[in-house]
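During the no-cost extension, the postdoctoral fellow (Dr. R.K.) reprocessed legacy sequence entries with the updated structure-token encoder. One reprocessed record is reproduced below for audit purposes.
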Amino acid sequence: MDYIAGFIGTGNMGGALVEAAAGRHGGKGIAVCDRAAEKTDDLKRRYGVTVTDAAEAAANSRFVIFGVKPAGLPAAIESVREALADNPRGILVSMAAGVSLGELRAMLADEKRPIIRILPNTPVRVGEGVILYAGDGVSKEDKAAFASLFAGAGFLDEIEEGKIDAAGTLSGCGPAFVYLFAEALADGGVECGLTREQAVRYAAKTLAGAGRMIETFGHVGDLKDAVCSPGGTTIAGVHALAKGRFSAAVMDAVLAAYQKTIGLDPKDGR
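Re-encoded structure tokens follow.
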């Protein structure tokens, strides 16, 4: 095959995955297509990827990656059906939220083609993302090649499809919730007299460090307790968060996003 990956759609998430793949493997083996020429032209300029049309990407790529929204996925697959027929070993990859492997299989009307459903998050752009994936008919060799393709994106985890929407809600929507928290931390710092630039930098570094501590030591409750000295400043702040229903609000946010996810219909204009 001419390309290891052909990206059909290079919006925010599709473009981020192109950057992750090209940044690690170079752009020579990557094809991209999008209705917005400025996006593909920029990727070509920065990474040396090949700009082509959807049919060529579908016919000549080991991984045919659809970066289109759920509403546009059926039409996108239909538009390259003949090209896919010329690429029987090509592996279809979809990042459309709420579209199951079974629904993808029905859209393809192809019982033999390997399919991978992925849910990435935006930090893949800086190599610190999460890519959750579930496959149907995918060999160990192809899974290894897929993992290698996106190894530069961050953490990849194969998960049973019954849990992928829940996990994808946490990791996919979670960055927005974290940004809100970071903004609130920075606002608090500004109110205490820091400059905005200082406050944002300290908030970002604090969140990054806390994340690394969780990865290293786990037991988030114990880590929290270790910062909360008896009668100290931190426990006073924790009390204030508890009075504001901080934990419940975050849990409600994840649940609301999950309920929205499982209600998605690929025919809806979302």
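The mean pLDDT is 94. The first helix runs from residue 12 to 25. The remaining legacy entries will be reprocessed before the final report is submitted.
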